[in-house]
Amino acid sequence: MKRDNFGTRLGLLAAAAGSAVGLGNIWKFPYITGKNGGAAFILVYLICIVAIGVPVMLSEFALGRKTQANAVGAFKKLKPKKSWHLTGVVAVSTAFIILSYYAIIAGWVLSYISKAVTGKLTSVAPSALGDYFGGIISQTIQPLFWNFVVLGITAFVVVAGVKDGVEKYSKILMPILFVLLIVLMVRSVTLDGASKGLEFLFKPDFSQLTPASVLEAVGHAFYSLSLGMGIILTYGSYIKKEENLVSLALQVTILDTLVALMAGIVIFPAVFAYGLEPNAGPALIFVTLPAVFKSMPFGAFFATLFFVLIAIAAITSTISLLEVVVACFTEQFNVNRKKATILISVALFVVGIPSTLSFGVWSGISIFGRSIFDYLDFLTSNILLPFGGILVCIFVGWVWGAKNAAKEISSDGLFSFKQEKAYSFVVKVLAPVAIGMIFLYFTGIMSKLKNVGPMLPNIVLGAIGLLTLVLAFFHFKTENSGASEEA
Ligand code: PHE
């Protein structure tokens, strides 16, 4: 089967950035930044994306481009006789599960657009907005309808292929996203009292910064750059050898971070200008901001622009999630693209039903103390993503070999890759350890250990420190012996 490729450099950048830029940037990043000490957290986050995000992104791009295969096929091609392809299975399953609930949130966004355009949203009293939002998501039919629309749009783009679908629409949508962001940013910072919001976002408060914030930064870097679920790997498989992966990864990362910062500049000045509190979770965009728009002149217009912006960010991400699963099915099971896309989309719709209902008639059902929706979010963000991330790092760093990855990153020497040594240290040692720590903290394993024995967490940390040293030792040893060069 002949594989599709991205047609232009700009299209490739738009598609990869489109995947990275999503709900995580527009809604989660501004909030966790405010919570963790503003500029102090931004600083830590920037260090995390440069030190861990970019190297892992490069590894995924390299895996994909080297093998010209999907997330499962890539591992099979490099190590046919081993079970490493299960890493790809984890990645693709994670993408599938994330998409099943990400599309539900994107559906809420579409329904808000329809309500903002008609002026219905800005006619709700601010104090009633919480109940209004609750009323929408707890219904049965409406959210399912919008979920269907999101999956339909996503499938429509993915069926058309990489060049004529993913690339074409990303190239149209991403510039619109930037224009909308700029318009909304200007509107927000020119409101009276906007400076308090900018202060909330940018004034460093190191006292709010904890070790947990650092882990939150690493975790968010992963999520925001769409790493650990084979997306970047799959996109990498559509890239030509003449493309410079280092500059591509840097550009995607810069765009992603820029959008996150711009979103913060849209949200907080407006929230503070109207004397509201920036609250956590979905309420920030679905309850607090509509209250802001209501008080603003031409509020319905700006509300519409804002929700269109979020919809674009979300849909360019759902496209990438679906592409990973479709690419895997078409190639591993030899199904044609159209059939695979339709089948998977129908499956996603069905799998999404319990998640949707968990806001309404099934809100009483809980899995390990969480609603179905929250459980899937927890399972993917805190368990499967870091797990996939560690496996990718170990595979690239130790199994395929950082040297071979670096060779691919430099397009076999066509481009210089001066940071090779640092890169190799990150994928082999730093990234797996850092991701492992996120895993221990965010799964609650650390706090459970504390309950078993107060010293236990320290013992585990000590063991991790020791493991790091051992890894570093082997890293430098193989580094100096010039081991495992590919034939
Ligand atoms: N990177 C996207 C964001 O920031 C989210 C995403 C996660 C997209 C996983 C695809 C896969 O929202």
TrEMBL record:
User: GO molecular function terms here?
Assistant: symporter activity
Against SUPFAM superfamilies, the record matches this protein to:
SNF-like (SSF161070)
Topology in the lipid bilayer: Multi-pass membrane protein
Protein location? Membrane
Q: Which residues cross the membrane?
A: 38-63, 84-110, 144-162, 174-194, 214-236, 248-276, 296-329, 341-363, 383-401, 422-443, 455-474
Q: Which UniProt keywords apply?
A: Membrane, Symport, Transmembrane, Transmembrane helix, Transport
The protein's predominant localisation is membrane
Give an example GO cellular component term for this record.
membrane
* Family to which the UniProt record says this protein belongs: Belongs to the sodium:neurotransmitter symporter (SNF) (TC 2.A.22) family.
Q: Which NCBIfam families match?
A: Na_transp
The name on file for this protein is Transporter
Q: Which organism is it from?
A: Clostridium bovifaecis
